[in-house]
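seq:
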Amino acid sequence: MTQRKKDPSRPGRDLLCLNLSGDLALSKVEQIRLFHDAGFDGFFAGWDDDLIALREAAEKYSMLFQSVHAPFVGLDAIWRGYGAEEMTRSILDCVDGTADVGVDLMVCHAYIGFEIRYPITERGIDCFRRIVDRAGERGVRVAFENTEGEEYLAALMGEFSQTDHVGFCFDSGHAMCYNSGTDMLTLYGDRLIATHLNDNLGVSSPDGVITWRDDLHLLPFDGIADWETIARRIVKCGFGGPLTFELKKSAARGKNGDLPYSSVSDGEYVAEAYSRAEAFKKVIGFVD
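struct:
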């Protein structure tokens, strides 16, 4: 697959990617053109997108098809037991779809859910072992992402600690609102192979109750994230890039109150997203 050619003088962290989004009025293929025109180097897609059409658009606009995000709704079934086979097959299909379009990275959650925790069982580990084994056969790396349920991520990162094609995807927003108090990059930064960079306001409940509603995916610098510290930690990990952002135009709250994302066009939003991505890249360069 034709990708945007990398200048050998350009470090990987100089490349900027953005998620395709259902928040935008444009189709996913049209979004790739918009990302290209704004200055982004690549994008990532969801497992249920038309990956073949997106591959063709990546070729047309010489964009990096950075990764595919595996299905995660209902992922707790793998640990619950009931429905585990169906969920595992869905992720196996995602591995195959990722490989079929020439993408070498799949991002995967280890758990979903806040109120119920199921035991970490060998049966659950075995489901993920099948996924990891298929990925290895198909030439796809698997990046497990920090979400809720840190113990499940720990189990998988431990189980596959010696598996070369398994690594870590750091989501800066999840670290703030799902993993309060846990330094995920200290735990897994030596295996960092992908980022999902975004901002939020942390845990909003006065009782400290964590929910998905705090995962705002704001543009960088619109929340409370300490971006210089994040940059220093990423640099310390030796991460080679690209810098990938996962943002939502529908986000309605920020540190200064309501944000005007909904009142701007898709083009204006993506242009601003690129401006913020460039700003963070400069922070990376400053601390490097």
